[in-house]
Write a structure and sequence with these properties.
Layout lengths: L7 E6 L8 H12 L5 E3 L6 E4 L5 H7 L6 E5 L5 H14 L4 E5 H7 L1 H15 L2 E6 L13 H8 L1 E6 L14 H6 L8 H17 L4 E4 L2 H7 L4 H10 L2 E4 L3 H14 L4 E8 L3 E6 L7 E5 L13 E4 L3 E7 L5 E11 L9 E6 L2 H9 L6 E5 L3 H10 L3 E2 L4
Parallel strand pairs: 1-2, 1-3, 3-4, 4-5, 6-7, 6-8, 8-9, 15-18
Antiparallel strand pairs: 10-11, 10-17, 11-16, 12-13, 14-15, 14-17, 15-16
Helix pairs in contact: 2-3, 5-11, 5-13, 8-10
Length: about 400
Amino acid sequence: MTEEDYVIKVAWTAHRGALETAPAEAEAYLRRLLPGKNYTMTDSSPDIILFLSGGSERRAIEIADPDRPVLLLSMRGNNAYAAATEVMAWMVNHNRIAVLSDAADAAESGLLERWAKTTGAWEKLKGTRAGLIGTVSEWLVASDVTAETLRQRFGVELTGIPWRVLPDYSNEEPDTDLLNRFRIQNPEGIIDAARVLTLLRKVISENRLDAIGVECFSLVQERKVTACLALAQLNTEGTVAACEGDLASMAGMIAGKALTGKVPWMANTTRLTDSTLILSHCTAPFDFVSDVELPSHYETGWSLAVDGTITAKEVTLFRFSDTLDRAFIAEGRVISRPRLADACRTQVEIELPGESIIALKERPLGNHLLVLAGNHSEFLRLACRYRGIEIVRQA
């Protein structure tokens, strides 16, 4: 199921004297409010409650699901907004997740569209299957998410897959998609990189996985071949593939793809000034960069890595905590493409607001940040609010 496939469930509420005319009134209003949208009217567990008048508070509380976030929308007039505000106060007092808005304003501002997408995306995540090949890299002390946390917070099922149970990559046929992508360059080491991709595809297929996290340093240290190109190719195709076994980043990449349709780039925090951030990593998705070159892997000097130019001018950065209950979100402007010798291969310098810089310095959630092209912060903040995830701000 995609978020577009999800059918939004809408309930209406009105005072007792309007019960006979309310259904037709609500249906007519919703047709104008949600043209072309998949929705259905319901009396239980709604995603949206439409207030037609005052005196409708009790019915709204009765039909709302304690375990389901709800958008409270009011028509204009008839004390509808007053009723919706009273219910919003009740929701806050009872630790329920809700958002309040005038219905017409919600349609005009895009809130209604974002709510529909958010609801569909989180529903889509339920039952997602992820695999961790190897272990979380030992230096990622703030990025290990437990299987139980992934299941409870995001509905993602995690399977552990030790490297020792997998066949030797060198016996695999090279992946033709990767070979064809670089057939003109044809760098030394591309055959082995393509064999690693074939192995990862088999793991994904055999375990019916939607996402993987790969502890890749043991591979490059023991066999002198990287998984950088394999992960970049998978992310380009839309299969989430996080490196270093970073499960917090993998969770963010899964959510980012469900919400925006694109797999984010996972990158290192490399330099931080009072106004700028430099990010770098060797696994940028090929559709996120141009002018791709394939130098050696930065930390080891072996095999191949992705070195490309970030094409986006505006980007959104985000990151979840290892408990998936906090998030960092910021929008920034790409100002340069550095060529640092002491950093991973694909690099970008981003100008950020001061409060985002302070949050990264004083309350970071981890080294790796996720990068999406374009401005998605408003959408991501709503998605976090939907799941009760706190947005980290400056101290």
